[in-house]
Amino acid sequence: MESGCYKKLDKHLSVVGKSPEMTGAREKVTGKGKYTVDMKLPGMLYAKILRSPYAHAKILEIDASEAERLSGVKAILTYKEAKLLYVPGHGRNVDEFALDDRVRYAGDKVAAVAAESNDTAEAALEQIHVKYDVLPALLDPAEAMKPDAPKIHPELSNLKGNFQVVHKKAYGDIERGFREADHIVENRYTTSRVCHCSLEPHVCVASWNEEGRLTMWSSDQTAFAMRDSLCNALNLPMSKVRVVIPVHVGGGFGGKYGSAEGIVCALLARKAGRPVMLELSREEEFYTTRTRSPCIFETKTGFEKDGTFTARYVKAIVDLGAYAYGAVMAERAGFYHMSLYRCPNTAYDGYGVYTNNPPSGPMRGFTSTPIDFAIESDIDEVARELGMDPLELRLKNSIKTGDVIPYNDYDVTSSGLDQCMLLGSKRIGWERRQKNPGEVEDVKKRGIGMGIFIHFAPKLAGPNERSVGCATVRINDDGSVNLFLGTPEIGQGLTTTMAQIVAEELGARLQDVNVTVADTEKTPWGVVVSGSRTTVETGGAAKAAAVDAKRRLFEMASKLLKVPAGELLSRDSRIYVSGTSDKGVSFSELLQRSDVRAHGDNIIVCTATYQMPKYVPPFGAQFAEVEVDTETGQVKVVNIVAAHDVGRAINPTIVEGQIEGGVLTGIGYGLTEELVLEKTTGQTINPDFLDYKLLRAADVSKIETILVEPVDPVSVFGVKGIGEMGAISVAPAIANAIYNATGARIRELPMSPERILKALRTRRE
Fold first, then answer.
1. Looking at the domain assignment, is residue 751 inside a domain?
2. Residue 629: helix, strand or coil by DSSP?
3. 171 C-beta neighbours (distance < 10 Å), count
4. Domain end marker among 288, 318, 339
5. How far apart, in Å, are the Cα atoms of 143 and each of 139, 153, 324, 353, 676?
6. Residue 45 backbone phi and psi in degrees, to 5
7. Same domain (yes/no): 625, 697
8. I need a labelling partner for 220 at 20 to 30 A (CA). Which of 165, 255, 315, 380 fits?
9. Nearest to 154 by CA among 109, 102, 87
């Protein structure tokens, strides 16, 4: 894997922009790192959940008497004592209970058991007898949208049918735009249901003390939102619930934002009077956790002969599944549609629809990755209609610095998008593309394609979510620094990056900064790790707290060195007078002086909150070179070039690693991954790594990253989000490369060999 970095060098930065080793990396690779799944508490029990075999049913009776008599069974829950509302700290739906008397998808929760061992708990599930009234199941969103379709959530009287979201947004005059167009292209694209596949499964441990105080440890992307959900369900004050996210979390990718299962675990622990661990099996990870939303996109694009857009319309149908955790997908996809390209007339209609499928929700590039496949495939189809180079078409119409995003009227303060396109196209060898797609007679044909993106990253707040960063900086007497953050480290390098920001601002040595994360009792409030905003928002708070702490240090040093604070500088945990190298004092020397300690001035604890003053979008361009075997339909990804506008890379190696991981996610999304449901029962057919085709190490293609750093003037150190970006444009880049190689257009994900062969036959006919 290769990389390149294009930026304006800042000689005054000593820590930011460097790539020190990621904190905790050695513990992970040596197997010494401890995860929630590794926890052992005295007397701990193990929980299992009975799952529904039906996609839609009413529970008429539950008889758990036989299970209760099994040796080792300590607690059993049904909806009769656990019909408690799950109010997510992230998302907008309030439609799920810990346990309910109605199940809405095959795999939904029916009852729960806590026992001395997992085997005993599993045996107990087999002894719980349930009588169901099986109801009609709606497995197709088109069927669920019909006016006479049975309601999946009849208790939600405010909904019209099975529509959780109907979102319409328009800019300009869309009808006039189409009338003025020289050409109109219309298409339909569908995307698939895919899983996060985090190596550490969803797992939590709940324990109550004698005073009725709950502590929960969880492999999650949020501590405080989980605490709030538990408090809402259990009717407890926040002071009575502590949530701890361990230092190591085995992946999240959007799939670990809390869940109703946490409430079940807490209730079992309270009923049993002992700690309880609830760990989902690998099969449960596939068919019960929130997947990427399957979508249908209908596009209509009007344009002039020279490629200028006159009108663009998208209709999106988002399969939310049984619970609307992913409802926001149907709204924010409209932002994406209206923000990437200049067009005077745009419109978006988004429909978030309940079905009796497993619930969908956030996944890497949430709200952007599915619709990018549609839009960026569509752009290439427009270019084909015009006989125009797809790169030229994008450069002509892409949004630029200074443009106003019509969806929210924010001006673009920086954009490296065009530079990403130009640098990436040069690196991939854009001039090598097939001039006449599909005309090469070889069985194995090569092609090159591209896709570009923008992402709606920070400022994601909905009614139940605050979007703000918080941090506390404490400087100790010996000059070392403690940084406390409410956001967890889930493998993205948070603790390393945040330490770099604080060390840079304080002028401290990086090794002197220690980071504590995600403990609702010990750290300040923290937002959900999502939306590629943590470095922007939490980093902004960490920098602000460090600024305040530095001011306190400089005020003390000013008196000692007898110069104004404005003439002081700090580096390597030492404060000195500007222009000199010998007149100064170290942090520790300053804080250990008797005159400083006498007045308590050595106690420096500074807390700050930070909210982005305005939206700063990340951009990028991704290029794919593929080889297509026209006899088998197999696609080999030869090379991916990912050129990303990252604002500024706080830690370039971490940024490159995030991009590379995202690219692999995107390749799987484009070519191999699909959670398949049986069409009549809704049961998951392939809930394991044998049949769910996740990419392996041997499948990894060549990945080249290019970091473009325009250094945005609005954000902290000029940074932009990066965690999701690597995944967004890979699938359309591959689709466009397949077309360039074969002349066959694939409009459905994943682009499996069967679908490619079908498209090749259609082209020949």
1. yes
2. strand
3. 17
4. 288
5. 8, 15, 17, 10, 18
6. -100, 170
7. yes
8. 165
9. 102
419 and 548, same structural domain? Answer: no
Q: Which residue has the higher pLDDT, 406 or 585?
A: 585
Is the entire prediction scored with pTM above 0.85?
yes
Q: Mean pLDDT, to the nearest integer, of 177-204? A: 97
What's the domain count of the chain? Answer: 3
Looking at residue 181, its pLDDT comes to 98
pLDDT on residue 460: 42
CA distance between the termini of the chain: 40
* 699 vs 68: CA distance, rounded Å: 48
* Strand, coil or helix: 544: helix
**CATH number assigned to the domain comprising residue 59:** 3.30.365.10
Is 184 contained in some domain? no
**Could you tell me which residues come within 8 angstroms of residue 278 by beta carbon, excluding any fewer than 6 positions away?**
46, 47, 48, 49, 112, 203, 204, 205, 206, 261, 262, 264, 265, 268
Residue ranges making up the domain that contains 487:
468-610
- β-strands 360-361, 291-292 pairing: parallel
Which tokens sit at 363?
């996944």
- Are residue 584 and residue 634 in the same domain, yes or no? no
Cα separation, 590 vs 604, whole angstroms: 12
User: In this structure, what token pair is assigned to residue 426?
Assistant: 């040069």
Strand extents, DSSP E, 480-611: 481-485, 513-517, 568-571, 574-577, 584-586, 604-610
Q: Indicate if 545 and 641 belong to the same structural domain.
A: no
Q: What's the pLDDT score for residue 461?
A: 39
Looking at residues 442-448, what average pLDDT do you find?
96
Token pair belonging to 620: 């990028």
CA separation for the pair 649, 5 (Å, rounded):
9
- For 192-225, write each residue's pLDDT tens digit: 999 999 999 999 999 999 999 999 999 999 999 9
Q: Are the C-beta atoms of 535 and 527 separated by less than 8 Å?
A: no
Structure tokens that stand for 307 in this block: 């490629």
Q: Where are the beta strands (DSSP E) in 8-72?
A: 45-51, 57-63
Angle formed at CA 498 by CA 497 and CA 502, multiple of 5 degrees: 120
Residues 141-145, mean pLDDT to the nearest whole number: 97
| Residue 180 in domain | no
pLDDT value for 10: 60
The alpha carbon of 504 is separated from its chain's Cα centroid by a whole number of angstroms, namely 27
Tokens of 514: 């220690």
Q: Which stretch of DSSP H or E encloses residue 292? A: strand 291-292
* Share of residues in the chain with pLDDT > 90 (%): 87
